[in-house]
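agent> step 3/5: call structure_predict on target 'Short-chain fatty acyl-CoA regulator family protein' (Novosphingobium aquae).
agent> reason: downstream docking stage needs a structural representation; sequence fetched in step 2, passing through unchanged.
tool.input:
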Amino acid sequence: MNVSRPLYLGPRLRRLRRELGLTQQVMADDLGVSPSYVALLERNQRPLTAELLLRLAKTYRLEVSDLAGEDAEDYAQRLTAILRDPLFADIDLPALEVADLATSSPGVTEALLRLHGAYAREQLALAALRENGGDDEASDPVGEVRRYIAANRNFFPTLDARAEELAAEIAESGGAQDWLKAKGVRLRFVPPHVLVDAVRRFDRHNQQVLIADNLPGPSRKFQVAQHIAYTSMREEISALLRREQFASKTAEVLTRRALAGYAAAALRMPYDRFARAARERAYDVDALSGLFGASFEQVAHRLTTLHRPGAEGVPFFFIRVDPAGNVSKRMDGAGFPFAAHGGGCPLWNLHSAFRLPGQILTQWLDLPDGQRFFTIARAVSTGGTRWGEPLVQHAVALACAAEHAPALVYAQGIEPAKVEATPIGVTCRLCPRAQCTARAAPPIGREIMVDDQRRAPAPYVFADD
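tool.output (status=ok):
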């Protein structure tokens, strides 16, 4: 490879800067050039000389070969490949024009590549939806992560064991900051603008972990724990990933992030101590939050992981929804039959939690198949810690089978068999409760009977009722 000639690597330099979480000013200071020169480099209006390339590699501890590739040639090849799509068959696209676009307008080329990538993924998702009779999670990396977590019952004993060892080391060192310092890593809490739209960044060059100083205490601690998980539990996480075949790199990366989150929670709430405290405090989420310095949601999530043989906790189901009813997270350890598609049941008070922020709502649920569950729900929020930052609201719920409810502080002294439960369905399309006045859609397979002379309370009347 010849690095003596100037190279135009604008898009690659810009991606590198963003991956490192740097502003143009910070990168300019690191490289000993002006911010305007960095801007010109990123727009391909100035070449990246061999001297600057070597300085870049040394400053950020990178391999020159990773930086000195031919972006224009790579872009031209990728652009040529997508332009073979039958969608463009009737357009004359000379190779010279394609090469010229890749060289002179790398930003436009990148936009076209991303757009076509999104189009191709949607085509695959649509094909999977049709082939599988409606299961579009087969081509969805988020769905793949959910299935992986569910297959393991959200329990990863190797991560719990290693986290307990690390938690003991950290406690002996006097805390995470002192433990990291002993490893040669500095922990700093800095204003959000320094992090360039991030809440945590590891500055490899200066060996320091930067955390946004406007985060609430539990979130700060969790971000520190997540850095430790990524760096000190890498082998355990990688070993778990190697056992699985992922459909895409994106799914693997998202799974790595999920496992790092699990490990961070295990560091903050070590298994034995947390499981014992949960039993002693009758699964009082607020009490456990205070004891471990964690948020309500962090504790609720951790409660779904207590499956160690001989030290099991109550099996819980966890779900998080936004005000529109979109599910952003769910963990099943209680056999709750949540639907993969469609909205949830409006009779579940999970959706009412937004109207009563800070309050824990309890409810007994009766499903059509006879299963009964006890749930607690509460609204939680993130963001809004500085002017102009939006407040993001969610409602989270924990559910357990009715027979386990007496172990919870929220249902102590209540006999599940004597409670009048709320009849709910999994989702309207699968719910057979014909008389439900809250129904939004008819169930699959039921014939609707229309009568102009009579209007029933329920929105639909069925022929066989």
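agent> step 4/5: record observation. The domain at 295-423 is CATH 3.30.450 (Beta-Lactamase).
agent> proceeding.
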